[in-house]
UniProtKB/TrEMBL annotation:
SUPFAM superfamilies: Cysteine proteinases. The lineage of its organism: Eukaryota, Metazoa, Ecdysozoa, Arthropoda, Crustacea. This is Peptidase C1A papain C-terminal domain-containing protein. Belongs to the peptidase C1 family. Residues 104-356 form the Peptidase C1A papain C-terminal domain. Transmembrane segments: none annotated. SMART domains: Pept_C1.
Length: 372
């Protein structure tokens, strides 16, 4: 798998690893080789922080299956762009516009704003598959279906359905394009479905949530080998499901990207719900536990899709985004993290995507969502 490549047009392409087993293996090895201070890796021999070169290729190789987003996403250029903040800034009469008159709260958490939409606070574990490009968009789509229906439709769209059936989205468990996922939702629709162990919906997710961070004294576990042969597109629902595949499809009314503008991103979340973002992963991000993440040590790895659902400022005055990472509930702060806001840190504000759901008449029945 390539780390970064340049195609001559100035754009780099990379995968973001989303595999669970690889992170577990690296965590074991890294615990043996190093310790850390304030989250920064420390060499046990030199007592100095490890630079990017301090990580061996052998150590990093399995990590790349934890990330699955390509840096260059051609499908995003087919999506409309919300440019209201740009147009209004050019107008001298824009002071009374909604964009500038809308009050942005100092703190916001979509989980509190829409408490009847439980998917907002869910961490859907992607397992040993680089599927963040599919898992995170379907997370956001599910949130927005609930929000835009006023809580009438509490559903989870099937990341497994998208992963198997979107042939133009990338390479399945070897990485993909989030932009393609949003376009597929609009054009083809996505059925419902939850985690590997759940009986909810039309099609469940194909991969077991096997992330197990290494804890001293705990038994060593290993994720099953991930094969793309598991990703066979089926246009039928499971036998015991009451609805047909066609009846279960949910579509997007519109899909778009938001420019790199903090206020525009905040307004989008305030008005319509969480958004999908792409994050460049650095080595020190792997060991995040709490606080506001700011890259300080280690080299850049791949790109990874995450969900932004709020913001705030910590006790030191540091502005941050609230985000969810589909690696596992056992990573970070229960699967959630904070990252520096306002400076495009780790490119977090560069590739924001979202959409508005089409609440079709075929989806009139409420779904009871089991978040297992």
């Amino acid at each position: 798998m390539k780390r970064f490549s340049n195609d001559g047009d100035g754009s780099s392409k990379a995968y973001v690893a989303c595999d669970v087993e690889s992170q577990s293996v690296v965590a074991v090895n890294y615990t043996i080789l190093t310790r850390s201070t304030n989250g920064i890796p420390i060499s046990p021999r030199t007592e100095k922080s490890l630079p990017g070169g301090g990580w061996t290729d052998k150590l990093l190789a399995p990590l790349r299956s934890l990330m699955g987003t390509r840096a260059y996403d051609p499908w995003r250029y087919f999506m409309s762009v919300k440019r209201r903040e740009v147009n209004e800034r050019r107008s001298s009469s824009s002071s009374s516009s909604r964009f500038f008159s809308t009050s942005i709260p100092a703190e916001f958490d979509a989980r509190l704003r829409w408490p009847n939409c439980p998917t907002i606070g869910e961490i859907f574990e992607q397992g040993s598959c680089a599927s963040c490009w599919a898992v995170v968009p379907t997370d956001v789509m599910s949130d927005r279906i609930c929000i835009h229906s006023g809580g009438r439709h509490v559903v989870r769209l099937s990341a497994g359905n998208l992963l198997a059936c979107c042939r133009l989205c990338g390479k399945g468990c070897k990485g993909g394009f989030p932009g393609g996922a949003w376009m597929y939702w609009k054009k083809q629709g996505i059925v419902t479905g939850a985690s590997y162990s759940s009986d909810y919906g039309c099609q469940k997710y194909q991969f077991f949530p096997c992330y197990q961070p290494r804890i001293e004294g705990s038994p060593k576990t290993k994720c099953p080998k991930t094969e793309n042969t598991l990703l066979q597109c089926q246009k039928t629902c499971r036998a015991s499901y009451a609805r047909s595949y066609k009846q279960d499809l949910y579509y997007g009314e519109s899909v778009y990207r938001i420019p790199n503008d903090v206020r525009a991103i905040q307004l989008e979340i305030l008005e319509h719900g969480p958004v999908q973002a792409n994050l460049r992963i650095y080595e020190d991000f792997l060991y995040y536990k709490s606080g506001v993440y700011q890259h300080k040590s280690g080299k850049g790895l791949e790109y990874h899709a995450v969900k932004l659902f709020g913001w705030g400022t910590d006790e030191k005055g540091t502005p941050y985004w609230l985000a969810a990472n589909p690696w596992s509930k056992r990573w970070g702060n229960g699967g959630f993290f904070k990252i520096l806001r306002g400076s495009n840190h780790a490119e977090i504000e560069d590739h924001i995507m979202a959409g508005i759901p089409k609440l079709a008449p075929t989806n009139v029945d409420d779904h009871e969502l089991n978040l297992i």
